[in-house]
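Bench notes, afternoon.
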Amino acid sequence: MISYSLICDRSHKFDAWFKSAEAYDEQAARGIVTCPVCNSVRVDKALMAPAVSRMNSDKLSLSSGHPQQAEIREMLRVMRKKVTSEADYVGDKFAEEARKIHFKEADPRGIYGEATRDEVAELIDDGVDFLPLPHVPDEAN
């Protein structure tokens, strides 16, 4: 798996995981790599620092101080509410259910739940399309 820092034509920056560099190239050529903020398909790789091995693999990628942070937080809160109100909660069976839907072993429907890091890696390897569901605190600190 490979993680790329990406940027759209409207200067929105975001990260995305791909099975391989070739998978990114193929998805970008098909126009299915889209900006999560504005849905633009004009997305390019952003300048990235080289990956450096870390001792603590539980670290998270974070951001602070963006001028539109409150607006982005509210958009994420609205997105999470929409997903959780319109999709079926499947708990820790997310990977299993997502795979069944992907391989047409179950009727297509929106689902959300939890998955381990290993399950997430396997879903990516299997080409299952999914997005992380952000946890957004109610209060800005």
